[in-house]
Amino acid sequence: MFWNRKNGATATLPSSPACADGRRLRALIDQATWDSMDESDEHASLLSTVRAEVVCPFRARLNGEIVDCIRLESPRKGYGLNVVCKSKGKTEIVDICQLDWVEPRPKGYEWIEAYFAWRDLVG
Fold this sequence. Notes:
Order of helices and strands: HHEEEEEH
Helix content: 25-40%
Mean pLDDT: 86
Number of strands: 5
Structural class: alpha+beta
Number of helices: 3
Distance between the termini: 16 Å
């Protein structure tokens, strides 16, 4: 797997009190990207898994307002994960990092956490 190969070092998730959580996220990343050849391939595999596992629609907060997140999309260029949000008759497409999460979190949210962890690892 490519995300674990850095020049002269090994990429690892933090081994602190959240060590078990880090191992869980790493296992999810491994599950989604086991056959990836490079970072771009990992991104595509992980996004495909996130889109398949996270149940839409779900609610989140965007700029202080509750929105309905109706779909997950790949960006047109580069890395990222976009969310199509609707609120008060407006539709907006934003990067998933712009959302604040509210309870209940969507079914499959652990895959969003795995995506965030992967994104932190690859920079």
